[in-house]
Amino acid sequence: MGLQAYLTLAAIVFCIGLFGVMTRRNTIGILLGIELMLNSVNINLVAFGRYSGDVTGMVFTVFTICITVAEAAVGLAIVILLFRVRRTVTADHLDLLRG
Amino acid sequence: MAGDGTLALAALLLHAVAFLVLAVAAPLRRLGRPAGYVSILCAAGSLAAAVLSWRAHAGEAISRLVWTWLPTEGQTLATVGVLADADSTLMLTLVALVALLVQVYSLGYLSDESAPALGRYYAYQSLFAFSMMGLVLAPNFVQLFICWELVGLCSYLLIGFWYQRPAAARAALKAFWITKAGDVGFLIGIVLLWRHTGTFDLAEMRVLAGNGAIPLAGLAVITFCIYLGAVGKSAQFPLHIWLPDAMEGPTPVSALIHAATMVTAGVYLLHRTDWLFALTPDVLAIVVWIGAFTALLSAVLACVQTDIKRVLAYSTVSQLSYMMAAIGAGFSAAGFFHLLTHGIFKALLFLGAGAVIHAAHSNDLTDMGRLARRMPQTAIVFTVGALSLAGLPLFAGFLSKEEILGAVRAGGFTAPFAMLILVAFLTAFYMFRVVFLAFFAEPVALHAGAPVAAGVGAHASHVADAGHHASHAAAGVAAHEPHEPPASMLLPLWVLALLSVAIGVYFTFVHPEPEFTSPAWLMPVAVGSAVAGILLAWATYQRRAIDAASLAAAFGPIYRSALARFWIDDVFERAYLLAILGFSRVIGWIDRYLVDGVLNMLSAWTVTAADDLRTMQSGRAQDYVYGIAVGLLVLLLWVQFG
Amino acid sequence: MTFETLTLLLPELALFALAVVVLLGGAIRRGVAMGWVTLVGLVVAFALTFTVREGASLLDGAFVQDSLALFAKRLFVASAALSLLGSLTLRTGAFARRSAEYHFALVASLLGMAVLASARELILLFVGFELMSIPLFLMTGFLKRDAVAPEAALKFFLVGTASSAVIVYGMSFVYGVAGSTMLSEIPPAVRDGPPLLMLGMALLLAGLGFKIAAFPFHMWAPDTYEAASMPFVAWLSVAPKAAGFVVIIRLYLAGVGTAALIWTPAIAVLAGMTMVAGNLMAIPQQNIKRLLAYSGIAHIGYMLVGLAALSSSGVAMLLFYLIAYTFGNMGAFLVVQAVAQSEQSDRIEAYRGLAQRSPLLALAMLLFLLSLGGIPFVAGFWAKLYVFWAAVERGMYGLVFLGAVLAVVALYYYLLVARRMYIEAPERPEPVHVPRLLGVAIGTCVIGVVGMGLYPAPWVTLAQRVAATLFS
Amino acid sequence: MNRLPLLSIMTWAPFASALIIMFFARRRPLLVRWTSVVGTGISLVASIWVYWTYDRAAAGFQFQEAFPLVPSLGISYLMAIDGISALMALLTAIIIFAGVFASWTTKERSQEFYALLLVLVTGVFGVFVTLDLFIFFLFYEIAVLPMYLLIGIWGSSGDIRPQGIFGWAMGRTGVGTKEYAAMKLTLYLLFGSAFILVGMLALFVATGSRTFSFLELQTMQFEPALQTWVFLAFYVGFGILAGIWPLHTWSPDGHASAPTAVSMLHAGVLMKLGAYGVVRMGMGLLPDAAVDWAWLVGTIGCINIVYGALSAMAQTDLKYVIAYSSVSHMGIVMVGAATLTPTGLNGSVFQMFAHGIMTGLFFAIVGLVYEKAHSREIFKMGGFGAMMPGIATAFTIGALSSLGLPATAGFVAEFLTFLGAWTSDYPWWLFPAVIGAFLTSVYVLRVAGQIFWGPKAPDPHFQHLPDAQGPEWAALGILVFVLVLFGVLPSIAIAPVDTATGQLLLRLTGQ
Predict the structure, then answer these.
(1) Residue D500: which domain range?
(2) Which residues contact A73 (CB under 8 A, 6 or more apart)?
(3) pLDDT over 90 percentage in chain C
């Protein structure tokens, strides 16, 4: 029952990522957490594709990876921008907008 | 043509015309005296018409004019019109007469009112005369009730004529509310009766009653309700308390409304519908007992008043109760007869009292004395009135009062009969107490400690009419002497005096055979008690052979409680303050703080909840992710177990 | 790829071309020129949507141009054009220097939505989502010198990508169970509802909940709205949500039949919570943008009520609601922009005595608010009415009653704004300056709101027609 | 049957003048006022004309105007009146005509004020004369919405110090301020209108025939279950507007805060609109339910009568007294309607009219007094009778009418209602009704005595107050005249109403 194992692994990675996103104080850390979440997806897709024996999963994975990169780029850009304006990358300090 | 009631209608409408003219033509009204002339003119015409129609309807002639007033379901629900017969036209004449005389009298009495006020006064007077006549001629209960309320309104307006004076304003409200309380019963009675008999019309109803078509079940309740209306209007216990306070109004008003006409409306009502009440004897019994009791109560109260008008007021109450007793005993004719004679001589007494007040600038007996020298004519006519009220032969009250006594006895009400005899004695006593104190005795002010001085001393109304007559005193007539009133006031006095003598003489010799037989001893007893009363008064207040103080002391408790008016007024005061106002406060509080408060509570809660809820929007990106995570978790759990 | 196929893709191609033109053109011409180009391009694209043959599908069913897709695309483009009219009046600072970037991002995102509307294949869906979202992140932070815009952008980005991760994670399961990325393969799989698939669908629902800003996935919305530039927010508050709804409809309703009903409770609960949260949290707001943001969330709740009916009429009413909401909400935001430009404030106080300063603007705002509040004679009335009607047909009386009560609550805070405008006295007498283009945009919205209010019939029939095709 | 579309003229004339005011009368107050006078005058003439030319023999709905608006939904512009609505239209016309004069001295933003007022009136007329449920609802909303601005902008705030339990809530919601009152009134009435809408749509759906026309719906038999809850929906929806207990609390605050003409119109006409809705829609369309629920309507009505009277007695603010008296009198309307007897229903309708005029008069006077003495505190004022005899007299006549004194319209209404109550299935209603009349006499005369017919108040401000003048006389004169005229000759009102109520009851009870 290999599939189960992969799925479980993916689930664990996803949860770790989510945990990171929710707990990291540093914005970069949060970005990394998101990366983890997305990569868990890749594990899923590849596993599914492998076991159902068609390539769509792999194709999907390729797309995911590309898009992840794009997101990372945008995210880092925003972080840098923010650091310029506010001189901080600590998520907790970013609460001017609230209520 | 005279027989068809148009004359009665004319008598009625003339006053309406006067009222409308005065009400609409404001400039005329503001002129004052001319307004008075207008309404007097109409009153005179109305009197003529009334007399004619009375002559026309003497005997059995009955004429009826009605017009549809309220349609429902395509048919007529209620009508208005006139029902002219012997009784109604006779009453009509009395009203017309007294109204005319009073209006003339007022010209002199209110001579120093401001012009607009005088105009207002005459407008009210005309309205009253109109409504009273409408009441008298009413062919059905609806019109009866309408006019019934209207006269109540006029009484309210006229009592409060000097509304700038707190006492007057309060008295007006008191009168309106107390009578209105009675009218609630009356109205209910009418509604019930309508369902019971299917009509408002007196004539139709009488026919039904005649051939026993009115179911007796529940009729007693209805008649009692109607009687309640009479209780209010004709000042029967316990609703009699408004009448004495009503003396805050100008004296002519008291003469017209609170002596001769309006207050007798209740009696008239019962007389008009005696065939209905005859079906419910137990209600009639109540009428007798209450009548007798009220008569006695108010007679006692009259003895301790020092305000001349209040004495008369209480005496009015007690005389009205006389009539009620007679009607209750089943002989309403006797009551009606007394109503007429009483109307004449009580008006006379009030107008006389007015003249006295006019002269002495005070209502208080203690300010009077030996006025006979200064104003002999007034003294004479007043005494005539007093004698009539006492019921001595040759005077108006004589036969009517005796008939009532006979009637009550014939009705088999022994105890009430005894009470009424006692009342006859008391009546003579308090009336002549007034006569002696005011006209013949030395001013009692010299005799310190006389009980009269210890009357309801502190009562606000003591300055009643003096209030506005003070203008005289202020006008530098400091060394001012009481004097005869002007002709405009004397004339009505004499007319009424002569009338009461004429009636008295006529009926002393011409006995109409009553529907009942009264024993031979009745007349002597009645007259004797009256004479005894007069003698006692004479001995006490003229000769001062008997010390009034000790006399009062002899009746200690009664005397003291009489001074407190047996606390009846206080009870009503409390009821008004606590029961009505207090309860209203409670309801008002409930409305504001519970009914509305709950609503406000809800909205306030919503706003607060909103405030708390938005704190969820902490501003930290990670909390937002928490939000997503939680939502996700819930969804997953639902998928798993839902 | 025949020529015939290309004609089917004309709108998308036009948008793509437009994007390229704007990007390159930006290098040549600075200033608002590119804005005009974009506007023209959008008009063209809008026109082109009418050339497409309805119901066509290519890439063996992965990409369809059915009536729903076309309906959605027209909505996207039209709303984009409206917001463009607003942004064209911003000729200072960033909007002058970097207008090309802005408009490129706009068109790119629009292209994403267009793809999304037509996609019936998971990968395409995902790509569409990202193509739509990433430019939105950029545009949120467009005013990069501004103190709060980057913060808003970051929040939007973090939460957005997280939710994308959730979506795609869900997609992976769906793919795994259905054995294909074609949406057409899902219904047969759903019938026997395997747990993994349900899991995937649930994850998807959560992610989509973020896109449409439904409680509790809504939290990014107020902050983003507050910080970003008005015309953009006006568009952001409408188009992406519409896209999200289109996807939801495709995933959960289209062709699934009665099996879809298993989602009713979830969506109903979502709707209820969203209505409550949105309406309540809007009450204490002092910033008009935040107020509109929360009220917008509440409206998503009402649309979800229509969706919860999971019936043809329900979807129809949802689509109708989308149109009404587009006009009303965008109009309101555009008025806010006008006031903000002249008052330099988006607090509600800025509206004191607006009725006496510039009556027409105030009247327009009042109309929009009334429409959002669901008062007769303006579009919102019909929208709420129809949505409730659809829910009643499914017997969801409780939800309808809740909605009705909350509608009164909503009216409360809308009237608070009306009170500022009409009851209170102005601080300054001179009227608010409204740029002509902005005036045109606002006027359009007014016409839309009032027109739909007075004569909703054609729009209703349109919505019904679109919905009907999904359930045939 | 008639070539001139009188009903449309009556309805839209105010609207037209509102437009004129909005666009052509900028900053010309006098023009504004005269335009309103003309507009409402036209309505008045039209309504009187309709009223007199209404064919009583033929009865039924007359002066029909109909053309389809949205055929697909069966919505059509259908206007017609019967005896009841004719009287109501007359009432509306009289009140607004007087109201225009009564608010002659409005200072700030008078242009918008009159415009909104006239729009409001258009709505009211529309509600009374239209027979298409949907149009009815739209007019209804027109009649409710402007109220928010009218009260919010031109209203006046009273001072109610929050105390007692829920005190903080009152403080938080700002009880007593005009904004609070406006908001409360608007939200309350819109909440009610939601019920009405739901009920109407339910009927619309229930009739496969797809029509909103009252005339067609009238002929249908809805199944009992539907009738029951639709009737209740109507009762709550319209009842809120009619001020039924315990949903009445918007009315005192609202009426107290509203400017003169608005309180005149609202208490005088709009509350009647609620009662009219219950009678026309509730009884007219749902006969069985109306019979089943009569006990509820009547009993709540009785509560209204006594409760309203007592609450009125407890007030110290003149406007609140009048407002609560409205609550009490609407109770009589409700009881009369619930009796389901010809007399009772006639009384109910007549009471709508009588109370409309009476309250209009009251609020006009309160407005005048407030304008001259700048006070609404009953127990601070006193002895105004000498200074403003005209106003005092008018107030007294109004007071007498409200306590049901004969020769005023109030008596006839109450008397008929009493008769109806005693002949209905619930005779005991008679007693609360009569007691209510007595209580009314207590509080209303107490007020009259305190303010007008009593000793002068010490306060120096109250020493020299002018009487009504100019246009204000017109307002008072008209209302007093009508009040007395219909009291002395009630048949001119009852006769046409009778034709309508008869038919209504025929469907209801089959008698």
Answers:
(1) 301-511
(2) none
(3) 43
Does D486 map to a domain? yes
CA distance B141 to chain D (A): 12
DSSP codes, B283-302: HHHHHHHHHHHHHHHHHHHH
CB–CB of C106/C38 below 8 Å?
A: yes
Structural domain includes residue D359: yes
Q: Which amino acid, residue C60?
A: D
Tell me, yes or no, if D137 comes closer than 8 A to chain C by beta carbon: yes
Q: Smallest Cα–Cα separation from B420: which of B520, B292, B518, B236? A: B292
Task: Specify the DSSP element, H or E, that contains B149.
Answer: helix B141-159
Q: Is the ipTM of this complex over 0.95?
A: no
The pTM of the full predicted model, rounded to 2 decimals, is 0.88
Q: Which residue among B77, B145, B166 sits closest to D406, beta carbon to beta carbon?
A: B145
Spatial separation of the C-alpha atoms in residues B607 and B601, rounded to whole Å: 10
C94 against C113, higher pLDDT: C113
Q: What average pLDDT score do residues D159-163 get?
A: 70
| Residue C404 burial (10 A CB sphere; 0-12, 13-18, 19+) | middle
**What is the pLDDT confidence band of residue D510, given thresholds at 50, 70 and 90?**
low
Amino acid at B84: A
The first and second tokens of residue A28, run together, are 């970069």
Query: CB–CB of B173 and D446 under 8 A?
Result: yes
The closest alpha carbon to D291, from D336, D338, D244, belongs to: D338
Read off the pLDDT of each residue in C269-298 and give the average, rounded to a whole number.
92
In angstroms, rounded to a whole number, what is the distance separating the alpha carbons of residues C415 and C420?
A: 9
Token duo for residue C356: 């006496």
Q: How far is C331 from chain A (nearest CA, A)?
A: 24
From the candidates B599, B617, B641, which should be mutated to test the interface with C, based on the most C CB atoms within 10 A? Answer: B617
Q: Which residue of B has its CA nearest to C413?
A: B607
CA distances from C23 to B616, C28, D207 (A): 41, 9, 60
Q: Indicate yes or no: CB of C418 within 8 angstroms of CB of D145.
A: no
Residue A1, pLDDT > 80, answer: no
- Neighbouring chains of D at 3+ CB pairs under 8 Å are B, C
| For testing contact with chain C, the best of D108, D147, D187 (most C CBs within 10 A) | D187
Per-residue pLDDT at D239: 92
Two tokens, residue B483: 């004097």
User: Which of residues B68 and D469 earns the better pLDDT score?
Assistant: B68
* Residue among C150, C166, C284 minimizing CB distance to A78: C150
Residue D413: exposed, middle, or buried by beta-carbon count in 10 A (0-12, 13-18, 19+)? buried
Query: Residue C123 is nearest to which of A30, A60, A71, comparing CB atoms?
Result: A60
Residue D189 lies in a domain: no
CA distance B340 to B500: 10
Contact between C225 and C292 under an 8 Å Cβ cutoff? The reply is yes
| Residues ≥6 apart with Cβ < 8 Å to C397 | none
CB-based contact C418 D153, cutoff 8 Å: no
Q: Supply B166's token pair.
A: 């707190």
Taking the C-alpha atoms of residue B18 and residue B407, their distance in angstroms, rounded to an integer, is: 41
**Whole-number Å distance between alpha carbons of D416 and D343:** 5
Other CB atoms closer than 10 Å to residue B315's CB: what's the count? Answer: 29
Looking at the DSSP assignment, which residues form a beta bridge with residue D130? D79
All domains of chain A, ordered by start, with CATH? 3-89 (1.10.287.3510)
Low-confidence residues in chain B, pLDDT < 50: 1-2, 446-479
Burial class (CB in 10 A: 0-12, 13-18, 19+), B292: buried
Residue B347: closest CA among B399, B384, B375: B384
Segment D121-126 mean pLDDT: 92
Give how many domains chain D has, as a whole number: 1
- Residue B74 burial (C-beta neighbours within 10 Å; 0-12, 13-18, 19+): exposed
Q: What are phi and psi of C159, to 5 degrees?
A: -65, -40
